[in-house]
């Protein structure tokens, strides 16, 4: 696994980094150094115009002002991980609030209002509050993270996200010592989301996801507000979504309106429907099959009729060097 | 009647041509194999329901046109089922037959779909006049397999659903209604809606 990174310079001055985070980051950086990767990339050489087949969205002020100072290619993917074309990444989505077909999200997500948008931060924090996206991002510099995205349905893509480490946002809310998990919630707005109006839906809306505290604080975990050098399209989870690259895609919850720090492991959407098929952790794991299909391999999209573009699935989606230590001593067959 | 048959033939062929065109034109998304797989499968189910609706429709309307396309629609159902399986083998498994063996053993929805297609195969190869003559009374009995095939296809679909039962419920409802119409009391009542004139239609091939 190859991760090139530059340490972000903008760490808030007003807080002390919790020890666990400090060590997590050190392990992360040590892993990078261990690969002998020191070659600095030309700063700013990577511009939004790089993505020429991208349909430009209208950028709200909070996004446009941050785009100029973005840290491009802060993390890149492996040499064989070719970027998925923008058109595919935006026309082939699972966003069940808009329907169950892969093309439903791009057909219907346009109806979702993303301005104004607020995110409530509550639970076991010293500083709860309701923030707009501008306030949520704060002083944090946008970083481009090119991550592999492995769907639980055995297909995968490679997406250049723009976002900020979730850890910085959580730290700003000052979690108490009781904060053991983070729960996320998607927008609940049936009048704009046909999937939420279905009487035959199996998901208990609003969609909820969760992470253990150390997973949420891990430097690879980001809140994303953009992709391909532009603001997030609605079908990809505008205006703000989670991206956890070593877990199956459904963990990376979209269009977040609430982030709660909680004591207990939260109930999340998919294990609630079928606990035999979906676990709370849902780490990418080629050795633990979904009961209805194998997870050993994946179809890297786009593919064609002449080639399934099948590749071997990697443990933790290839991010094992950075995250395996989070699960030391855990039976990952039991905690799948 | 010949024109009607030809029209049905063309109508049943059109979905295949349309989807093939979409794939050729690059309009089928980043996973064209999956696109074909899902469309062929859904088309086979719709055709199966249409095939099973012909006998009740004929009883209700006494129009022979419904009877003369029954074998054809049955064969189209089988054809789209074969296209569905072929898409799975070619585009999802990539012709990795060891993976097929593993799938068949461990994944009940694939077994169930496979069993349904085998039944349709048995019906397709015995759909000719020669087989009807040879099998005599047993032919009708054999072709009642189509009801089991419908149940298996619905089960196959049920196990694939992940987030919303809406579409599946609509198909299951249609299937249930078609089964209800075959209960003798209901079926006789259906026949009385329009009284029989003269000799009436030939004995139905699928009861």
- Count up the domains of chain B: 1
Mean pLDDT over the full residue set of chain B: 91
Report the sheet-strand fraction of chain A: 15-25%
Query: Helix/strand-derived class of chain B?
Result: mainly alpha
For this structure, what is the CATH class of chain A? Alpha Beta
Question: What is the count of helical runs of chain B?
Answer: 11
**Mean pLDDT score of chain A:** 89
Strand content of chain B: under 5%
- The dominant shape of chain B is globular
Classify the fold: give the CATH topology of chain A.
Answer: Sulfite Oxidase, Chain A, domain 2
Q: For this structure, what is the CATH homologous superfamily of chain A? A: Oxidoreductase, molybdopterin-binding domain
Give the second-level CATH assignment, the architecture of chain A. Answer: Alpha-Beta Complex
Please bin the fraction of helical residues of chain A: 10-25%
Cα end-to-end separation of chain B: 22 Å
Report the total helices of chain A. 10
Structural class of chain A: alpha+beta
Structurally, the number of domains of chain A stands at 1
Encode the helix/strand succession of chain A as letters.
Answer: HHEHHEEHEEHEHEHEEEEHEEH
Separation, N- and C-terminal Cα atoms of chain A: 22 Å
């Amino acid at each position: 696994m190859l991760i090139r990174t530059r340490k972000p310079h903008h760490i808030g001055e007003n807080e002390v980094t919790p020890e666990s985070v400090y060590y997590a980051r050190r392990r992360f950086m040590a892993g990078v150094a261990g690969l002998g990767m020191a070659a600095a990339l030309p700063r700013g050489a990577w511009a939004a115009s790089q993505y020429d087949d991208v349909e430009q969205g209208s950028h709200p002020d909070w996004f446009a002002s941050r785009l100029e100072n973005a840290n491009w290619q802060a993390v890149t993917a492996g040499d064989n991980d070719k970027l998925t074309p923008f058109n595919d990444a935006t026309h082939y989505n699972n966003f069940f609030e808009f329907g169950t077909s892969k093309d439903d999200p791009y057909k219907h997500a346009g109806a979702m209002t993303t301005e104004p948008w607020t995110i409530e931060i509550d639970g076991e924090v010293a500083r709860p509050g309701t923030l707009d996206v501008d306030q949520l991002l704060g002083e944090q510099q946008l970083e481009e993270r090119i991550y592999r995205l492995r769907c639980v349905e055995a297909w995968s893509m490679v997406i250049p996200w723009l976002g900020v480490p979730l850890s910085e946002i959580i730290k700003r809310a000052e979690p108490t010592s009781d904060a053991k998990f983070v729960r996320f919630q998607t927008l609940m707005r049936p009048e704009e989301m046909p999937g939420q109006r279905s009487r035959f839906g199996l998901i208990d809306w609003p969609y909820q996801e969760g992470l253990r505290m150390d997973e949420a604080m891990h430097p690879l975990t980001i809140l994303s507000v953009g992709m391909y050098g532009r603001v997030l399209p609605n079908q990809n989870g505008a205006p703000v979504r989670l991206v956890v690259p070593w877990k199956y895609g459904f963990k990376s919850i979209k269009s977040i309106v609430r982030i709660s720090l909680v004591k207990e492991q939260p109930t999340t959407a998919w294990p609630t429907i079928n606990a035999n098929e979906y676990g709370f952790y849902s780490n990418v794991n080629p050795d633990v099959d979904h009961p209805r299909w194998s997870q050993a391999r994946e179809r890297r999209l786009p593919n064609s009729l002449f080639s399934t573009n099948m590749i071997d699935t990697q443990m933790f989606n290839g991010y094992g060097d950075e995250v395996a230590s989070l699960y030391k001593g855990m039976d990952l067959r039991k905690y799948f | 009647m010949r024109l009607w048959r030809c029209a049905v033939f063309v109508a049943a062929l059109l979905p295949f041509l349309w989807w093939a065109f979409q794939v050729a034109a690059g309009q089928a998304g980043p996973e064209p194999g999956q696109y074909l797989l899902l469309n062929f499968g859904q088309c086979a189910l719709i055709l199966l329901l249409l095939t099973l609706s012909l006998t009740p429709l004929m009883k209700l309307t006494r129009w022979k046109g419904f009877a003369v396309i029954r074998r054809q629609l049955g064969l189209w159902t089988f054809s789209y089922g074969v296209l569905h399986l072929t898409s799975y083998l070619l585009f999802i498994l990539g012709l990795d037959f060891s993976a097929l063996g593993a799938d068949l053993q461990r994944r009940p929805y694939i077994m169930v779909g496979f069993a349904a297609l085998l039944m349709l195969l048995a019906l397709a190869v015995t759909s000719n006049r020669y087989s009807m003559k040879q099998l005599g009374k047993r032919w009708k009995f054999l072709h009642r397999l189509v009801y089991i095939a419908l149940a298996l296809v619905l089960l196959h679909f049920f196990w694939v659903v992940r987030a919303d039962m809406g579409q599946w419920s609509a198909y299951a409802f249609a299937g249930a209604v078609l089964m209800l119409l075959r209960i003798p009391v209901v079926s006789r009542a259906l026949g009385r809606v329009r009284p029989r004139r003269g000799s009436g239609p030939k004995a139905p091939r699928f009861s």
